[in-house]
Amino acid sequence: MPDGSQRLEATFKCRKLSAYFGDRKIVREVDLDIADRKVTAFMGPSGCGKSTILRTLNRMHESAPDARVEGSVLFSGHELYARGVDPVDVRARIGMVFQKPNPFPKTIFDNVAFAPRLLGLARTRSDLERRVEEALVNVGLWTEVKDRLKDSALGLSGGQQQRLVIARAIAAEPAALLLDEPCSALDPASTARIEELIASLARRLSVVVVTHSLAQARRIADAIAFFHNGEMVEFGPPGQLFEAPSDPRVKDYLVGRTG
Ligand SMILES: Nc1ncnc2c1ncn2[C@@H]1O[C@H](COP(=O)(O)OP(=O)(O)OP(=O)(O)O)[C@@H](O)[C@H]1O
Ligand SMILES: [Mg+2]
């Protein structure tokens, strides 16, 4: 939930946003506003384009061969697809976390220190250590790893690795965080932790999360965008979308998922 300032302007404004792999149009002319400091969930059947549209929001989509984007994405008023914008800078400002945790084959410390080092955020060694600790505290991992920061990140459990990867992303001080099914490989306890983390992150930045879990969307989303075959067919708060969906494709999906 937002703090007292109630600053609700859209962080992302997508206009006629389309994405292709070769000739296949995967995302179809999506108009979507994603509010600042809220959790927005992307839902819809497998293959409908959720991951693809998520990847257009930080210019990740075009890193795949044969992939391209049409239309516009304004991020805090700036066109991400303007000529001269470096996709690498965009990806540094808008963090991304994937379904399968992907820690670097480095120590726990070096994973979290990676972006502060790359971006030159830390002025001194102790500043760097402070940033690493803070990010690990924020994801609820600090007490579990503080005595093994020099161990390989690959020795952590799946749930710990996912929290580490989120710590790595937030250590870059991103302005927004995109999470693609971050809990699908996790047990209920780790899932609950990540959901709490998402809620606390959304006090500071906008969070977009792809999920197949209706229960999860109900728990964490302020707004849900529902996609079908590359089109956004419904957008609204979870209550409205779950209790009184206006699009029959949303109804069908809900029946299939719950019945
Ligand atoms: N690298 C790729 N090259 C070509 N086509 C792709 C590529 N990645 C995805 N697609 C196609 O784009 C469409 C949308 O895929 P996408 O991964 O965005 O769906 P999704 O909604 O995230 O599905 P899921 O819920 O299964 O993760 C699918 O038809 C898929 O086959
Ligand atoms: Mg996907």
Structure description:
With 259 residues, the protein is an alpha/beta fold. The chain has a single domain (10-258), classed as 3-Layer(aba) Sandwich (Rossmann fold), CATH 3.40.50.300. It has helices at 50-56, 87-93, 108-119, 125-138, 142-145, 158-170, 188-201, 214-220, 238-243, 248-258, and strands at residues 10-21, 24-35, 39-43, 67-75, 78-79, 94-97, 176-180, 206-210, 223-228, 231-236. The strands form two sheets. The protein has a six-stranded mixed beta sheet with strand order 6-7-8-3-9-10, with helices on both faces. Strands 2-1-4-5 form a four-stranded antiparallel beta sheet, covered by helices on one side. Helix 3 (108-119) crosses helix 4 (125-138), helix 3 (108-119) packs parallel to helix 6 (158-170) and helix 4 crosses helix 6. The longest helix has 14 residues, at 125-138. Bound molecules: adenosine-5'-triphosphate (ATP) and magnesium ion. Magnesium ion (MG) binds at residues 50-51, 180, 210.
Quick structural overview:
Helix content is 37%, strand content 25%.
CATH class: Alpha Beta
Task: Measure the end-to-end span.
Answer: 31 Å
Return the average pLDDT rounded to an integer: 92
Write the CATH architecture name: 3-Layer(aba) Sandwich
Q: CATH superfamily, called what? A: P-loop containing nucleotide triphosphate hydrolases
Instruction: Compute the number of structural domains.
Output: 1
The largest pleated sheet is described as: 6 strands, mixed
Q: Name the beta content range.
A: 25-35%
Total helical segments: 10
Number of strands: 10
Residues in helices, as a percent range: 25-40%
Rg over C-alpha atoms, rounded to the nearest angstrom: 18 Å
Secondary structure category: alpha/beta
Multimeric status of the protein: single chain
Which hetero compounds are present in the coordinates? adenosine-5'-triphosphate, magnesium ion
